[in-house]
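== Folding task for one protein ==

=== Format: two labelled lines per protein ===

==== Paired sequence and structure tokens ====
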Amino acid sequence: MTAELTRGQNHPLPRARLEIRISAGTPVVAGATLGDENGTIHGVERVVHPGAPTLPGLEVSRQAAADHRLAVDLDAVPDAVHRVSVLLALPVGGSGPARFGAVAAPFVAVTDLDGDEVASYTITGLEAETALVALELYRRQGAWKVRAVGQGYAGGLAELLADQKLPQAHQLAASIHEAVASGLARSIPAPPAAAPAHHPDHGTAPRTGPGAPVPPASPYDPQGASAPGPQTSGAPGRTGAPQPYPGGPGEPATTGRPSAPGAGGPIDYSHPRRQNAAPPPPPPAAPPAEPGQPARPVAGDATGWSMEERLYNQVWGMFEDLARTTAAYRSAVDFAESRMEKELDQVLSDPRSRIGGQGDAAREAARSRHGELVSQAREVLDRDVAQLVAEAEVVEPALPAAFARWDNPVWHAYRVPMEIPMALRLGDLHLPEADRIRIPMLIRLPLERGLWIDSGRSASLDGSFADSHEMRRLGLETAVAHAARLLAVYPAGEFTVHVIDPAGSGAQALAPLVHSGVLAAPPAQGAAGAADVLARLTQRVDLVQMALRGGAPDALPPGLDTSQQLLVVNDFPHGFDDRAVNQLRYLADEGPAVGVHLMMVADREESAGFGPLLDPLWRSLLRLTPVAHDHLADPWVGHAWTYEPPLVPPGSQVLQQVLAQVAAARRS
């Protein structure tokens, strides 16, 4: 499992032969220094750079590039070397950016020779720096580790090398830049690049993001502590979207000059999720666009090491684009209204112009300017939404089963997977100003928070079209759809579902799970059945926690099911006493860390009798609804996103067919 490092964190390296992959979104110079225990470099022969690209155990690129692969063999590094520092620098004298603060956050990953990531680091918070130490590989008690450094230098390579005690720092820095410039002069110019697969003028503000290829948490971060409303992720919290998704979905990095809204010119963005220069394998080339027309969208047009990751990042890029362009539209409308009110106030403040033709003309002029501004803003919004709709039309059919709607044809070719996907679709998100487009709501796996399907009447948009019994039925059907999808995207035997239905009221909705045989046991009924399931899952959490804390994860009792566990609770709090409620809270708090997850179908008002005891439980769960509802608040841009659950189309047998294959794979 990849360790996503933050500045100062370290991680052990499991093997000596590695690759260091760098994605910066703009050409950078890559190199490395070999230092002693104190980090001191003893001579220029201990620096590997484009002018001297190989040293024992190290090889770097000969030119500046947006993406690099550095080969490392730690067994071949001299014994006197205790630190290997990976350097990045912006080329000098070219037309590129002059500081790292003006480009996307660089991303660095340590991988094995098969491409599997060991550790990764997104270098954020850069401003005036032109060179930096990205990572440090160092010896500790005979073993090698990697540390995320992210130390920048405004004085460039010369200041960086001088800080590592190299006497000839300025001369070596000059020779490195000269070697880069010479290599560029000798190279054959590349053919003109195809137009980017995504239209550069998505939205009206610079695009931000955490840095590829680690997905941000989105502004609506399902894994965050607070419900939105996307979390962003990401922001994918915002490490940077989203997400993440934290003070924004990510660190802003603007490379273009946005044109004024309504001016008709393109708006450029720097978005590490959606750079055209992606790590291998490269994304498919965009079909050529007609002259004067926006580039045609392409599925997978985002940075990532696999098509699944590129599609994930592209979806959240679309989410960010829609959030920004809608926020810009709302801001423009607010400005137009405030300006009109100010102009009308000025007219009314002068008694001479309150009545008569002069006052009427001034009021009409103010309203006309208001309408013109709103019309311009709407034109920009419609343009951006149209491009996003075109992108969604090519992305949706290309999504894998874990990301796809139940009506996607990908389910007709479904086979039980061999690997766990990186994310799961929990529904769709949209905004009232752009009702034509639906953005898939993706959350990372394994789940880090439980789910709460709110079956209360307040969950509906108008609160009147469904009574409480209908809402409970819809809530359980939504929970069954979520549980079935989780079972379908995990390898056979690696995901187990338990159900508590104390009153037996959910027999009809639970039929697909029961009849297919994918449940661990028949749904538990009555207070005794609920207590038995809760006791077994609580004991499992305790045993795994004790094994992990004791440093003996393999010392578990024979026969203990080590697969991921999901407990679906229907009609809460019926059949739950104080002890059962405490066990439920314990599973919600401690379970996700050891593979025990909770999904509740409940009306919060019906559990009001427990008082504030249950407040932490509701806060710890991600609230979803069985009907479309605009309850997912985005604290970053202030949107209230409308959530739509991923229900199976009426009359479709896809759920039964998928569960039948899951059951057959488990038996075999």
Observations:
- The longest strand covers residues 17-35.
- The chain is about 30% helix and 20% strand.
- The CA atoms of residues 574 and 610 lie 12 Å apart.
- The radius of gyration is 28 Å.
